């Protein structure tokens, strides 16, 4: 089972580095994506699970997301801020550091690396650190962000997303 972003990244790396044929790797990635989709869903888990097998149902009313639906919001702007921050910090840092930069934190490394001078420093104060971590988990589950365990769990933006973030700002 998967417990956190490091586990997701590790499983992805196992798939990528395996000697299996590309078709098998693609199938394993799809399975991992389905598992992440189930773990991070805001919908009824029964509906998500059944849809994986091609079946449909009404919300069950019994799973955790039916019993206590998560609060949802349009995360487009937050995702763009996070992607931009990941890109502007050189895709070399983990989630905790990215959150610190977005919140305008006082981590000495931020000043050391000059990240207190980038445009994304402090632009995420509308959310607390816990919410930013949840946003980043969703972005990992949606494959907008990869976690590179070989680079100390650094967040890396997916290339098309990073390019659009980098060019959307003047």
TrEMBL record:
<dbReference type="GO" id="GO:0006260">
    <property type="term" value="P:DNA replication"/>
</dbReference>
<keyword id="KW-0347">Helicase</keyword>
<dbReference type="Pfam" id="PF09382">
    <property type="entry name" value="RQC"/>
</dbReference>
<dbReference type="InterPro" id="IPR036388">
    <property type="entry name" value="WH-like_DNA-bd_sf"/>
</dbReference>
<dbReference type="GO" id="GO:0016787">
    <property type="term" value="F:hydrolase activity"/>
</dbReference>
<dbReference type="InterPro" id="IPR032284">
    <property type="entry name" value="RecQ_Zn-bd"/>
</dbReference>
<protein>
    <submittedName>
        <fullName>ATP-dependent DNA helicase RecQ</fullName>
        <ecNumber>3.6.4.12</ecNumber>
    </submittedName>
</protein>
<dbReference type="InterPro" id="IPR018982">
    <property type="entry name" value="RQC_domain"/>
</dbReference>
<dbReference type="GO" id="GO:0043138">
    <property type="term" value="F:3'-5' DNA helicase activity"/>
</dbReference>
<keyword id="KW-0067">ATP-binding</keyword>
<keyword id="KW-0378">Hydrolase</keyword>
<keyword id="KW-0547">Nucleotide-binding</keyword>
<feature type="domain" description="RQC">
    <location>
        <begin position="74"/>
        <end position="167"/>
    </location>
</feature>
<dbReference type="Pfam" id="PF16124">
    <property type="entry name" value="RecQ_Zn_bind"/>
</dbReference>
<dbReference type="GO" id="GO:0006281">
    <property type="term" value="P:DNA repair"/>
</dbReference>
<dbReference type="InterPro" id="IPR036390">
    <property type="entry name" value="WH_DNA-bd_sf"/>
</dbReference>
């Amino acid at each position: 089972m998967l417990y956190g972003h490091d586990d997701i990244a590790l499983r992805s790396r196992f798939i990528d580095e395996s000697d299996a044929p590309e078709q098998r790797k693609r199938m394993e990635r799809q399975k991992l994506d389905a598992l992440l989709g189930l773990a991070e869903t805001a919908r009824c888990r029964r509906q998500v699970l059944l849809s994986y097998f091609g079946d449909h149902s009404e919300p069950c009313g019994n799973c955790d997301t039916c019993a206590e639906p998560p609060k949802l919001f349009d995360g487009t702007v937050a995702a763009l801020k996070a992607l931009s921050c990941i890109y502007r910090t050189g895709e070399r840092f983990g989630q905790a550091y990215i959150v610190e930069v977005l919140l305008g934190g006082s981590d000495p490394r931020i000043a050391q690396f000059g990240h207190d001078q980038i445009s994304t420093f402090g632009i995420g104060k509308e959310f607390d650190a816990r919410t930013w971590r949840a946003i980043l988990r969703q972005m990992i589950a949606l494959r907008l962000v990869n976690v590179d365990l070989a680079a100390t769990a650094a967040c890396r933006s997916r290339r098309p997303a990073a390019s659009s973030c980098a060019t959307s700002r003047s």
